[in-house]
Every structure is written in structure tokens, then in C-alpha cells.
């Protein structure tokens, strides 16, 4: 019995941007065991452009769909079905009869091919051919053989002519816009990842179902007894084939429309850029107007402040003037009181002076006249000072009112200046945001144009072809990369070693597929990661393509 190598741990197929790398550069789910990757060498001439690749895929899909349709109409149509649970016991009886006639021991396991030979040996035996189960058994054998042939042919064609080309050529060039969040590129990349996962699951599921069908085909008795389950397996594989064909057509249609979507996105971004530029011009005009308004408000506020300062100085002068008038008024009143006292004294002296003292009386009369005149002058001066004081107080009230008005006006000017300055700050922020958005749009448009150039350039398809050719040839070298203690070392490996096919960079590649034991058949999806001219040259170091293990 041949010793098989242990099953490698499975890995989830996904895009490299879905993983965070570990310290040693590996992805979390990558196995540490050494693996090798086999790359199929491209055949035929290189494609002239991506349209040729899509036509090639369509030409490969059409006959496959016709084969599937013919198989369904012949072997899976509802009218061809019978109640298997009721007749499979009679099928076993007919097989036992044929074995008995052929002197076949029941302990000997007979496969489908041997059963067909035995039944054909008795095609002229009426005891065999007259039974209804005879035609049913022949139909069962024919369906089994046709299915295995169909499975091998369709699966091979889907893998090599359809899915290989889809995975390699119908790509989004996502690396050119990885951090830019461009909707068409992101959506197409998400679709590609989703389709890749679904393809991976369907191909590996049908491998398991086909292996069960083939295994049971080596023992016809077990095959017949499980035929209802086998028929459901055949139906499932047929449906998966049809689903893969429909998925391939959706993929092709999406890829064909992808450049148009990119162009529409470019036009949308350019329209948005024009709108933002128009808004920027409007904002700049408003900004200039606001700046002029701020200048005028500031100038007016300075004038008001100067006027307010002058009025306050005038107000202080008027207050001082009023104080001086008040002091002078008080002083004059005191002097008036003193003069009135002198006048009273003179009047008493005049009354007391005898009449014969004429000279003294005349002297007193002159003094009385002088004092009376001075008193009258003082009274007039007091009256004038009182009037002046009233006038000053009225002026002081008017000045106080004016000062209050100027203070309110100055406060309003300050508030207006602050509000206009805040508006200007908002305008500045909005302008910065607009300029940043324009810059972001320019970056996105540049990325979209690069992707458009890659999708429409014939050179891109040719580079993919020749890079795949070079990578396939270099992958044939009997070397394998082993990761041990976070260090790489290269060891030789004989060409006759069991073909455990996967990526030699599986430890770095998050899209490598599940590996199965030797002798089984599985599918490994490898996502292409090409973007610019340099990445086109490096694509085969990190690409994902579908490879097949021998059945």
C-alpha cells in the first residue's frame, strides 16, 4: 500500500487585501509545510487583446453548453426518469440472472465495463432481453459512461479554456486603486473574489461527488442499490456545470462592460470636479467680499473708537469745567454773604451816627454805595454762573448720551467683525475641503485612466501571456521553498516526487487552495494580481490560477 503524504491544512480563498500579515510575512491561514506549484504552459499564440480572450472563452462555452443541454435532454429529462426505488430490486435480480448464466460468483466484484460485456454476451437470450429491466440496465450503463466522459471533457474544458482565461485576463487591476475606494473597481473586485470562492467550492465539491460515483462504479451491485443517490450526485454535478457556465458568462459580461463603467466613473468625477471648481470660484468671490467687508468694518470701528475717545475726553473737560464753576459759585456766594454782613454793619453804623457828624455820615454813605454795588455785581455773577452751570450740565447729559451711543455702536462693530471673521474662517475651511476633494478626484481619475489603459491596451494581454509562459517554465525547476523558523532555504527535489501541486509561495499567498491527498483530484484557485507595467512583470509571483491534481 502506497504511503500518502499528510493532508495539508486548508486555506480560505480570498483576496490578499483581506488578510493582515504575521510577523514572518505569512498570512494567518497559510501552511508552514513546503509545497510546490505547477503552472500550465499557455498554448497557442498570445492574445492580441482582451476582446480576443473573451471571444475565445465564449467560443469554448457555447459547445460545452450544447453538450450539457444534450446530456440533460437524453439522460436527465423528467420523462426519462422512473421510480428507481421500486425497480432497483428488479435490476439486481436481472444482474444476478446474468451473473448466474455467466457462471459469475457473487463474491467477485464486477465493474460497469465488465457488466456491459456480460449483458451484451446475452443480447440474443430472450430470458434476458425480454425483461423490461434489460433496457433500463443498458440505459443506466450508458448514462454512467456518458456522464464520466462528459464530466472529464466538460470539466477539463471549463478549467483550461474558460476559468483559466477568466482568472488570468478578466481582472479588475484593483492594485491601481487599492486605497481609493472607487466603486466600479471595488465592486468588480468583490465580484471576482466571490466568483472565485464559488468556483473553488463547486469544483472541489464536484470532484468529491465524481469520485464517489466512480468508486461505486467498480461494484455494480452497490452502484444499483445506491443509484438514487448517484443520480442525485449526477444532477448536482450537472447543475454545477450549468452554474459555472452562467457564472462565466456573467463574468465575461461584467468584464466587457467594465471599461465603460470606468469611463462613466471618470466622466462623473470630472463633472463633480467642474461643479467643485465652480463652487470654489464662488467661494473665493464671497471670501474676497467678506475680506473687504472685514476691512471696512475694522476701519469704521476704529473711527467710532476714536470718536468715543474724543467724546470721553470732552466729557471729562466738561466735568472739570462744571466743578470749577461750582467752586467759583460757592466762593462768590461766600463773598456775597460777607459783603451783606458789611452792608448791615454799615447800615447800623449809619443809623447810630449823629447827624452833626456830616463827614462821617458821608463816608459811611459812600461805603454803603460801594458795598451795594459790589453786592449787585456778585448777584449778577452768581446768576451767570448758575446759568453756565445749567448749560454745562445739559451739555454733560448730551455728551453722556452720545458716549453711550458710541459705546453701543463700538460693541456692535466688534460683534459684527467677529461674526464676519467666523464666516471667513468657515469659507476658508470649505475652500480647503474643496481643494482636497479636487485633489482626491484627480488621484482617482488618474487611477481610473491607468486601469482603462491597462484594460484597453493590447500589450496588457500579451504581457499576461508571456509572463505566464515564463512563470510556468521557471516553475518546472525541481526546487521548493521551505519556511523554517521564519527563514527561507531552498532544497532540491526529484522530478519523480509525488505531485502535490500548489504555490511555491503558498506561505505568502492567501489565495492558495486546499490540497488533497495524493491520487485525489482537486482545484486550486490563484487570483491574478497585476496592475501596472511593473506588476505585469511580477504578476506570476503572486497570481492565483486554477490548477488541477491528477485524478
What does this structure look like?
The chain is mostly helical. Among the domains are: 7-47 and 457-551, no CATH class; 298-438, Helix Hairpins (Orthogonal Bundle), CATH 1.10.287. The protein has eleven helices and four strands, in the order H-H-H-H-H-H-H-H-H-H-E-E-E-H-E. The strands form two sheets. A two-stranded antiparallel sheet has the order 1-2. Residues 1-48 are annotated as: Disordered. Residues 329-388 form a coiled coil. Keywords: Coiled coil.
Strand content: under 5%
CATH class of the domain at 298-438: Mainly Alpha
Largest sheet: 2 strands, antiparallel
Mean pLDDT across every amino acid position: 71
The CATH topology of the domain at 298-438 corresponds to: Helix Hairpins
Q: So, CATH architecture of the domain at 298-438? A: Orthogonal Bundle
Range of helix content: over 70%
| Rg, Å, rounded | 54 Å
Strand segment count: 4
Unreliable stretches? 1-38, 478-551
Question: In one word, what is the shape?
Answer: rod-shaped
Strand order of the largest sheet: 1-2
What is the end-to-end distance?
18 Å
Q: Which structural class fits the helix and strand makeup?
A: mainly alpha
* Helix run count: 11
Order of helices and strands: HHHHHHHHHHEEEHE
